[in-house]
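Fill in residues.
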């Protein structure tokens, strides 16, 4: 490709892309949903092809950029104006924790596991699931968290006061029906104690428990499988 032709393609691509991104608005950056992300990549790829692919004519490259941008603007219009269009393009927020209860099917639907959920909660300065009243997985992949009122965790039906024992931070004891032996030992309790507490809560098998953790005050948070 000759230098004058390359400079021409580069200039045309740059200013056409600049013009189109201004028309499409700032949502491409500030509200980066999966569709916005994919659309931005596609537009960038077309602009790059216009610069380096001499088999693609300048006019066809411009038509492709304009066409893709128009489709993006149309989809954004549907997103704003219609509920069905919004759900089609961005989906709907999904409740992962409701009234302190982990919704396992919602986790599976979002392709999340407990470790990922807990990591997202820690990013919200929440270090125990027992602190959470509601957690919602937003369409942009972020987690919104509503904490329980102070003191509510003590009276919550999933909390079982066992004894006055201070632990530095909450420790997960059961994860998806499996006992975390190391955490149980670090909490200062043993299997006999755990089985006794589960029986007090009306649970007769470890396999019935989706998640359980010992709180800093020695109370036990239990989330049963559905």
């Amino acid at each position: 490709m000759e230098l004058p032709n390359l400079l021409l393609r580069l200039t045309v691509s740059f200013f056409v892309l600049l013009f189109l991104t201004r028309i499409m608005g700032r949502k491409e950056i500030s509200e980066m949903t999966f569709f916005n992300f994919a659309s931005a990549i596609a537009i960038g790829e077309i602009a790059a092809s216009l610069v380096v692919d001499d088999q693609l004519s300048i006019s066809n490259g411009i038509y492709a950029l304009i066409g893709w941008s128009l489709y993006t603007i149309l989809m954004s219009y549907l997103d704003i104006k219609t509920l069905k269009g919004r759900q089609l393009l961005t989906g709907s927020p999904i409740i992962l924790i409701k009234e302190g209860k982990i919704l396992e099917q919602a986790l599976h639907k979002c392709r999340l596991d407990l470790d990922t959920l807990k990591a997202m909660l820690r990013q919200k300065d929440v270090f125990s699931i027992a602190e959470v009243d509601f957690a919602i997985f937003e369409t942009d992949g972020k987690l919104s968290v509503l904490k329980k009122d102070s003191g509510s965790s003590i009276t919550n039906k999933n909390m079982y006061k066992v004894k006055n024992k201070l632990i530095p931070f909450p420790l997960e004891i059961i994860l998806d029906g499996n006992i975390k032996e190391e955490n149980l030992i670090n909490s200062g309790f043993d299997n006999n104690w755990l089985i006794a507490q589960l029986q007090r809560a009306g649970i007769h098998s470890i396999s019935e428990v989706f998640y359980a953790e010992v709180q800093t005050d020695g109370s036990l948070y239990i989330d049963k499988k559905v």
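The radius of gyration is 26 Å.
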